[in-house]
Every structure is written in structure tokens, then in C-alpha cells.
Design brief:
By secondary structure, the protein is of the alpha/beta class. It folds into two domains: about 5-190, Glucose-6-phosphate isomerase like protein, domain 1 (Rossmann fold, 3-Layer(aba) Sandwich), CATH 3.40.50; about 210-325, Roll (CBS-domain). Helices cover about 45% and strands about 15% of the residues. The protein has 15 helices and twelve strands. The protein has helices at about 5-40, 40-50, 65-80, 90, 120-125, 140-145, 165-185, 190-195, 200-205, 210-215, 230-240, 260-265, 275-280, 290-300, 320-325; strands at about 55-60, 85, 105-110, 130-135, 150, 220-225, 245, 255-260, 280, 285, 305-310, 315-320. Strands 2-1-3-4-5 form a five-stranded parallel beta sheet. A four-stranded mixed beta sheet has the order 6-7-8-9. Helix 1 packs across helix 7 and helix 2 crosses helix 7. The longest helix is centred in the first third of the chain and has 36 residues, at about 5-40. It is elongated. The protein starts with a helix and ends with a helix.
Length: about 325
């Protein structure tokens, strides 16, 4: 094959691949849109069952539905709702003992006729354990046995064969995410609560509070506003934050002197001047409960490298951009 012919063949293959990819994404997007429109009061009933759960949310499914169920269990757990995945085959060989009457079952099956789920369904019925089903067909054995059945829109699987679980699993995943988010919003989960479940990784770093990284106590570079710059420079150098805060007689923060202020006011009489003459009044501050990411945003926005942390008007800490870098926030 000539180079020109080979190039043309590659172009055809690339065009076909992109066309297939766009077709799949468009088809799954339409399915998700239909799913959103199809949500009814049954979704609210399912959320109420989950919110009333005294134990854990137990998810199960077979094959691809099982993989999706496993991910949904992880999402629930990460948003403050204790959850676990139980494989239906393992359930039939002893793992049913992991499920208690205080739990709620959430089971996934596109057909609603997955035989491996039978023992779980019977167990839920025997012990009156609430059962939520995400199914692709109703009526079906699973839908009929469920306390609440969430039925997916009838959408074909993606691809020319339409056989591999694609559209159905993406709708299951979206519906599981919707339940998890609805539940966390119903509970009023805060960013601080969320950080408890994500102490590691990038998310954990983003949820670091200013109080976690600030300098406090003897590490604070503070002087009275009437202090001479000679004395203030000694404090600034010793504390190594590139700034010194100025306080009034009541201990309130009234100003800040930075390395940049020193350069701008450099002259022979600098050391004899009072801090109040050089300081920037009403400096930018932050409170200890703010997220570290907010401190980074403020410093970038104001083009500064340090912030004093205040409680009311009194300085209780200071944070430097380097502290944020060490915490992985910038």
C-alpha cells in the first residue's frame, strides 16, 4: 500500500472511531436526560428510606450492575452514609450474616430477573429489611419484591449490537449518585463533615482549615503600633513570616508592615520611625475556620504573601503562602 493510500485508510479509521464515540456519548446523554425527566415521588420515597436507615446501606448486584453497585456504595460512604457492597454469590455462602434488620438493601439489576439475587431478596423479605431496587424492567421479580422500585427508562444499549451494558449502567450510576447527593443534602452535610471522610489525597488537602496551618502564640510577629521600626525589624526577622502586625492598646490588629513596605520607605530615618507611619491600615485578614484554599485565593487576589488570622479584631494567628504550599493547597 502506498503512503498516500495508507494515510487515507488511517483517516477513514479515525473518522469511524470518532463517529462511534460521539454516537455513544450522545446516546447515553439522551438516556440521562430521559432519566432526569422520569424521576417521580418514588425517588423521594427511596431517599426517605435511606435517611431513616439506622444501620448501613447494603448494595448488591451481579456482573456490570455489581461493579456499579460497588461504586455507589463507595459514594454513599464518602458522603457520610455508612455503606458496603455485598456480592450476591458470597451472600449465599455466608455473607448474608453481614446484613442486619437495621440496614437497607439497594439492589441493581437491569433485567430484574438476576437469579443470583434471589437469596438476598428472600432474606430481606424474611427479616422485613427495606429493599430499594434499581431495575430496567417492571414488572419483574426484583421490582415486584422491592419496597421501592426505581425503574430506568427503556433506552437501548450503545453500539451497533446494542448488547453490552452501557446505557443501562450509566443510568444506574447516575441514579445512585442522585440518591447519595439527595441524602447528603437532606442531612445538611458540611464541607467540614466531608473532610472527615477524605483526610488523604487532593480533596483532603483542599479541605484543610486555616487553623490547621497557621502560626500562633509566640510565633506571631506582633508589636504595638507605636514601636519603632528598629524594634519591629528584630521581631519580623525572628518570626520569619516576612511581615509584622501592629496592634493598638486593646490588642486589636490595626495594621501590617511587610518586606515590600520596607523597600518602599527605605531612607536614612527609617529605623527611628514608628510602625504606625509605615503600616498598611485595615489589612486583609481571615478567620481560623476558613478553608486554606480561601486563604490562597485571598493572597493571590490581593497579591500578598501573608494573612493575619483574627478572632473579632484580635490577631490569633498568621498564615504565609509557603504554609499553603506545604499543605498542597497551591
Amino acid at each position: 500500500m502506498s503512503p498516500t493510500a495508507a494515510s487515507a485508510a488511517l483517516d477513514v479509521i479515525e473518522h469511524d472511531d470518532l463517529a462511534a464515540a460521539r454516537r455513544v456519548v450522545a446516546q447515553e446523554s439522551r438516556a440521562l436526560a430521559r432519566l432526569a425527566e422520569a424521576l417521580t415521588g418514588r425517588f423521594v420515597e427511596a431517599t426517605e428510606l435511606l435517611a431513616a436507615t439506622r444501620g448501613r446501606i447494603v448494595l448488591s448486584g451481579m456482573g456490570k450492575s455489581g461493579h456499579i453497585a460497588n461504586k455507589i456504595a463507595a459514594t454513599f460512604a464518602s458522603t457520610g452514609a455508612p455503606a458496603l457492597f455485598v456480592h450476591p454469590a458470597e451472600a449465599s455462602h455466608g455473607d448474608l450474616g453481614m446484613i442486619t434488620e437495621a440496614d437497607t438493601l439497594l439492589m441493581l439489576s437491569n433485567s430484574g430477573e438476576t437469579p443470583e439475587l434471589a437469596d438476598l431478596v428472600n432474606y430481606a423479605t424474611r427479616f422485613s429489611i427495606p429493599l430499594i431496587a434499581i431495575v430496567g424492567r417492571a414488572p419483574s421479580t426484583l421490582a415486584d419484591a422491592a419496597t421501592v422500585a426505581l425503574v430506568l427508562p427503556d433506552e437501548p444499549e450503545a453500539g451497533t449490537l446494542g448488547l453490552a451494558p452501557t446505557t443501562s449502567t450509566i443510568m444506574m450510576l447516575a441514579l445512585g449518585d442522585a440518591l447519595a447527593v439527595a441524602l447528603l443534602e437532606r442531612k445538611g452535610l458540611t464541607a467540614e463533615d466531608f473532610s472527615l471522610y477524605h483526610p488523604g489525597g487532593k480533596l483532603g488537602r483542599r479541605l484543610v482549615r486555616v487553623a490547621d496551618i497557621m502560626h500562633a502564640g509566640d510565633a506571631l510577629p506582633l508589636v504595638p503600633a507605636d514601636t519603632t521600626m528598629a524594634e519591629a525589624l528584630i521581631v519580623m526577622t525572628a518570626k520569619r513570616l516576612g511581615c509584622v502586625g501592629a496592634t493598638d492598646a486593646l490588642g486589636a490588629l490595626v495594621g501590617i508592615v511587610t518586606d515590600g513596605d520596607l523597600r518602599r520607605h527605605m531612607d536614612t530615618g527609617l529605623l527611628q520611625k514608628p510602625v504606625s507611619e509605615l503600616m498598611t491600615r485595615d489589612p486583609v485578614t481571615i478567620h481560623a475556620g476558613a478553608l486554606g484554599a480561601e486563604a490562597v485565593h485571598l493572597m493571590n487576589q490581593r497579591q500578598i504573601t501573608s494573612l493575619f488570622v483574627v478572632e473579632g479584631e484580635r490577631p490569633i494567628g498568621a498564615v504565609h503562602i509557603h504554609d499553603c504550599l506545604r499543605a498542597g493547597l497551591a
